Amino acid sequence: MKEYEIRVKVKEYANKSELPADEQQLLQKSEEATRTSYAPYSNFNVGVAILLENGEIIRGSNQENSASPSGLCAERVAMFYANAQYPNVAIIALAVSSSINGILNSKPIYPCGSCRQSLLENEQRFGKSIKVIMGSTDHIQAVNSIKDLLPLSFDLDDYK
Ligand code: THU
């Protein structure tokens, strides 16, 4: 038997002003995007801003439905929209924020498992790492790649 640890690097910023300027701007846009969320069931509003390699910024927010699996997280709303509009342009960064009743949360928001899997495939598809910036009013965390959010991930190509 062998046992080993898998380490990931997580950056932590005490506040927004510690972030590089372009990431501050992206995070700000994700905060604004929480206002476009449709979340009457959870009352949890999530906003995402995606930076594409061509400099374009795409926003998204969670869109719920009374038949709950029919709704979608903010990350996938933004990512699928970006891919549909710009099918040949890689995503290079994604910022995510959350709020309740219009007040930004003080704990960073972490993408769910399904979004991690979807975003991982996007990294593989374009061969580009996606930086993820997870915001809150208290502190901000960031990873350099979706792989850091999804160790031991499934990749069909590994079995070919
Ligand atoms: N949600 C997101 O949009 N992104 C996340 O990273 C976590 C959760 C949404 C799904 C649902 O609409 C609400 O937040 C509560 O789970």
CATH secondary-structure class: Alpha Beta
Name given to the CATH homologous superfamily: Cytidine Deaminase, domain 2
Could you say which small molecules are bound to this protein? tetrahydrodeoxyuridine
Overall number of strands: 7
Going by helix content, strand content and strand pairing, the class is alpha+beta
Please bin the fraction of helical residues: 10-25%
Domain count: the total is 1
Q: β content, as a range?
A: 15-25%
Question: Architecture, CATH level 2?
Answer: 3-Layer(aba) Sandwich
Determine the oligomeric state from the structure.
single chain
User: Which stretches of 5+ consecutive residues score pLDDT under 50?
Assistant: none
From the alpha carbons, calculate the radius of gyration and give it in angstroms. 16 Å
Describe this structure in words.
The structure is a single chain. The protein is an alpha+beta fold and 160 residues long. It has one domain (13-152): 3-Layer(aba) Sandwich (Cytidine Deaminase, domain 2). Helix content is 24%, strand content 23%. It contains 3 helices and 7 strands. The protein has helices at residues 21-33, 74-85, 113-126, and strands spanning 11-13, 44-52, 57-61, 91-100, 103-104, 131-134, 140-143. Strands 1, 2, 3, 4, 5, 6 and 7 form a 7-stranded mixed sheet that branches. It binds tetrahydrodeoxyuridine. Tetrahydrodeoxyuridine (THU) binds at residues 39, 42, 44, 46, 62, 64, 71, 73-75, 96, 109, 111-112, 115.
